[in-house]
Design brief:
Blueprint (H helix, E strand, L loop, with lengths): L18 H33 L4 H15 L4 H10 L1
Length: 85
């Protein structure tokens, strides 16, 4: 049997190496946490945005509507610019 298995294990010459299970568990949690974060970010970057492409006219139209709502342009100019968009 391997010297690090079984009863009476002495890890690095220590009889009481109770902290090793805690360190091992934390390393596994850290590893899988980092892997999960990377996977989620890649999914959001490549899959979600690919399903919903952005339309460039939407931003211009929202700016036009905001300008009209603030009173910066009148209805004739609003209709003219809207027709161009």
């Amino acid at each position: 049997m391997h010297p690090y298995y079984g009863p009476g294990v002495q890890f690095w010459g220590q009889e009481n190496a109770w902290w090793m299970w805690l360190a091992s568990m934390l390393m596994y949690l850290l590893f899988w946490g980092v892997v999960s974060i990377i996977a989620i970010r890649m999914f959001r970057k490549y899959c979600v945005k690919a399903q919903y492409p952005t339309v460039k006219g939407d931003r211009a139209m929202s700016i036009l509507i905001e300008r009209y709502a603030r009173g910066e342009i009148d209805s004739e100019e609003f209709k003219r610019i809207k027709a161009d968009l």
